[in-house]
Please model this.
Amino acid sequence: MWCYRYLRWIDFRIFPFILALMGISLLVNSAMTQIEGGNVFLTNSVVAQIQWFVLGWIGYFFFAGVDYQQLRSWSWALYVGVILLLVGLFLTTPIQHVQRWYRLPFLGRGFQPSEYAKIILIIVLSHFLDSKAKSTCSFRTVIQALILAAIPFFLILKQPDLGSALVLYPMILVIFYVGGIHKTLVRSMALFGIAILLLVGLIFTHLISYETLRPYATAFLKEYQYERLNPHTYHQKAAQTAIALGGVCGSGWHKSTFSGHEWLPAAHTDSAFAAYAEEFGLTGVIFMLLCFFGLIYFSFQVTAKAKDPFGKLLSLGITIYLATHVIVNIGMMCGFLPITGVPLLLITYGGSSVVSTMVALGVLQSIYSRRFLF
Model:
């Protein structure tokens, strides 16, 4: 099942980008949690993040050595398991007023099933559409595919975790499109997504008044749900202020006057991009974006070199997963999208996001290293 020989054929060009992003994560974590031990690097959060990185690399090399075709036989068990975990969240005590995490007291950490649900849904949909290649346009296949996608989507939305739901939607859409699902469904989903994105964009660019739209929106949305579209929250303004203060070269590591004084909410988690932008400025942001570009570019290369439909669907779904996280998180911090808790991959502090991302990258390398076998 696992074969170390295939590790020789993985794309090592992706390593510098992963390591650079991990380095950025540690710099941000250290600077934003300096209160723990003064002006030092190894704060408690940095040590915890390093532990998650180590676990992530273990997951990366394990899945890079596993034949990705084996994921077909695991897919349904993984799907049922993650659905049970998502349902079980509603029986737990809320953490920060939401039901997204399981407490793991023996590890002193939290476990967020929705992060793994994204990867598992990609695997399941890729396997399902590949197995139904001759009937993807049939009504039965369309309904089955919609049900498979809708169950985790609405369970995650109910937590509530709008951010993860936002990431799932483009992933599902692209897999449906490439997998050959009926064009009417794909076109309808695309138009709906564009309409929602356009409306949100108009609100956050102040071309449509948030208050003017309130009476119409609250006719079918609850007040707290509509409040998520408020472009005038303190978090939104604080993130934009931190980015602006960074200027071209930034204030310097451990020298931020805004983020470092805890005026930026969730500075080492959801707002890591804004905190990094204040300390390293436009120059640092360009470097970060180049790292993400390299990561996503080489992920698309895997899709181009995949030799079977399952591999193409799987690798493309993972690539969209990576790209969507980056676009949505940076869009939130820059004031173009509502802040919904989407992590910035490999930078935001948190174990579930790090491990699931590294597992996804490991699956990509499994596809890449077996590109000569067909």
Remarks:
- The CA atoms of residues 253 and 279 lie 5 Å apart.
- The chain has one domain: 4-369.
